[in-house]
Design goal:
Length: 220
């Protein structure tokens, strides 16, 4: 499974990228606003830090303007993936951008039928939002299961990767991996939680305390 980080915070991205475990980044207009930076500068800087796909979202709602915005965003760096919303206009823009060789991430997906259309439109990624479905008492992970099942039924014609979005906690990541989702885009705090376990901390403390008693050191 690939790990993307869902943020436009450059310091967080730099810190996480240094682990070598980051495969890409997703942003959206709300995350750009939260960063307080200039959209183009932020995306350019992220693309310099992370070689993998960096999603930058269009803000127009009609296909023609989305297409122009998408082309402008794609020109920022070769690793930009243009994000478009799952509307009919978004699908039209997705088709045109994909045919022109641009990677497109179709976002705000909340149903399997929407995911099917995004694949048909040539999306490189489909972003189903699990947390926002859970928030309204619907089964977010159930949607991932349905999309993975559908896409797997057409291995020769569907190349779209399932990018699990709106992740709220580590269990979302684990469940998505069990279902065979291709990518999880994870908020920085949740990404860090993936590595932590109280028994790891307790065990390490005990090992180090015993080691100190030996008076030895590995490096002389
Ligand atoms: C995905 O690309 C979105 O930016 C993101 O996962 C949305 O998450 P939220 O529901 O926590 O805003």
């Amino acid at each position: 499974m690939k790990f993307f980080v869902d943020t436009a915070d450059l310091a967080e991205i730099e810190d996480l990228a240094a682990t070598g475990l980051l495969d890409g980044v997703t942003t959206n207009p709300s995350l750009i606003a939260k960063s307080g930076g200039d959209f183009f500068d932020v995306i350019r800087n992220i693309c310099d830090i992370v070689p993998g796909p960096v999603s930058a979202e269009v803000t127009a709602t009609d296909a023609e303007t989305m297409l122009s915005e998408g082309r402008t965003l794609a020109a920022i760096a070769p690793n930009v993936a243009v994000k478009v919303p799952l509307t009919w206009d978004g699908l039209k823009a997705c088709r045109a951008l994909s045919q022109g060789g641009t990677k497109v991430n179709v976002t705000l997906c909340f149903s399997p039928s929407q995911a099917l259309l995004a694949a048909k439109a040539g999306a490189a990624f489909i972003s189903p939002f699990v947390g926002r479905l859970d928030d309204i008492s619907q089964d977010g992970m159930g949607l991932i299961r349905e999309i993975v099942t559908i896409y797997r039924a057409y291995p020769d014609t569907i190349g779209t990767e399932v990018l699990v979005a709106s992740i709220r906690h580590p269990l979302h990541v684990v469940e998505a991996a069990k279902l065979g989702a291709d990518v999880a885009t994870v908020p920085p705090a949740v990404l860090r939680k993936l590595a932590s376990h109280p028994l790891t901390d307790k065990g390490l403390d005990a090992f180090l305390a015993d080691w100190q008693k030996t008076g030895q050191s590995i490096l002389s």
